[in-house]
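agent> Task received from the user: take the single chain below, predict its 3D structure, and emit structure tokens. No templates, no multimer pairing.
agent> Plan: (1) validate residues, (2) run structure prediction, (3) serialize to tokens, (4) report one or two observations.
agent> Step 1 OK, no nonstandard residues flagged.
tool_call: predict_structure(input=
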Amino acid sequence: MLDSRIKTAIDQVSDAAPWALVEHFSTFPRWKPEDVAEAASDIARRLDEVGVPCELLNANLYLSIPYDASVEANGVTYTAKPLAYAKSIPEGLTGTLVHVPGTLAASTASFYDKNRKNESDADAERLRGKIVLTDGFANPQKVLEFQQKGAIGVIAVNPGVDRHWGICSSIWGTPDLDGLPRKPMIPVAAVSNPDGAALVELAQSGGTVTLKTRLEEGWFSSPVPVVNITGSEEAEKFVLLHGHYDSWDVGVGDNATGDAAMLEIARVLWANKDNLRRSVRIAWWPGHSTGRYAGSAWFADAFAIDLDENCVAQVNCDSPGCRWADTYENVAWMSETEAFCKDVIRDATGLESSGERPLRAGDYSFNNIGLTSFFMLSSTMSEEKRKEMEYYTVGGCGGNIAWHTENDVMEIADKNVLMRDIKLYLAAVMSVANAPILPFDWRNTAAEFEATLGKYTQQAGADAALLEPVSTALSAFSTALDTFYTNAPTMPQATANDAIQSLARILVPLNYTRGPRFGHDPALPVPALPLLAVATQIGELPENQQGFARTQLVRGVNRTVAALRAATRLVSQ
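)
tool_result: status=success, residues=573
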């Protein structure tokens, strides 16, 4: 149950300041640099008006600003949208069109998968020197694969009558030298489904098209509004609440509503700062849309050591308060937070919830550091409502297909839903900030590991024995965890909390990353315990590659065992 301090804070939530921000943001687009700067100043001004100090940090971000695109064929010009980070070819590129069929994601959990239904259609000999026409969204996996197989351009046929903005690079944030080779080197654009149907017919007859894209790519100074609300007991420890303020077009549901939610939460928490045990840091990100989470990645880089030593959890606020969003289905939460999230959603809203493993998306720029994390998208319309509306899966806006289009306007926002979501986020952040012992149960994560390992062992077949050291290490860790949580109520609270936080630095990277700490893995789907996932593929590989896969698995096993043993020592001390 929510304690009296949280209930008091919730009772202070008002729609005045947040709804005024939503209404204002609905009047101007926020992806071009000058508009982003105006939006940041507006957030800072509104915070000042409600008495909350705000610091405007300056991030130098490498961004891709898309302007316009078109596809010309047989005297007809089809309007298109360029994908951010695609190659800019305003003069046009002419080539033969080839169709590679695709399928749509059935849910948000699979939204960033390749979704291709005919592998033979992606044969390199067929694609080399051609412009690929593919169904669905131009996700980075597909674009990179088509480029590697020799395609000179990609046209994505979006599933509805609208064309959706997006980004086709898998590079997370501003590229470093290691990431630069993954930057797309071909033009990529999106067309509507009706226009795509005409282009499919053209592709089937071997027709040609001219693809034009116009983008601006380079370094941009980008403001980052940040509010620090200092706790009264453990001031150095903090919860990070964050979301992006840049948007495609006016982006009401993605993410003006989120910006408004954080504004109101900042106001209420500032008024109740004496009732906070730990601090709360609230940040609004630029470069989410035009830089693949560049703002949050910059913050993770610039304040990495502080985040490593002091951040107890990160909470993402994206697309709350949208129309018809009357459920909390498939809420993103890491397994150690599951029980906490279900409880706080029930206590704050009266609704039950279901969760899913966080996608490699949504400003989760802190996995490599190892931050416990929960929430990404907020409330959503039910599966039944989506079917009733005949909506396809999108990545925000409460499930409304206005996502990443010009239609994400005021009618997408719902004041009552926004107020409910604000109260939920406020309750969740304040609950973590005030918990005597951090409310994260790593036994759930150990159980997730056990389930993942069981699946991988079964799929590994004859190579299952290679995974046995992980099973042994995991068993020892689970036993140590049980003892730790049994004894935690009688430990000094600082000792228990240090262990819970330190476990995150070990186990979150183990479960969500392949790369090193303080880096940024690509924006591509990441399986559970990714260092071991190759175990599921060995039997499907050609025989001359299986030895290489086993070598990769052995190395992954070694890293996993070492991490589990370090975690065991930590909780055993």
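agent> Step 4: summary for the user.
The longest strand covers residues 208-229.
agent> Done.
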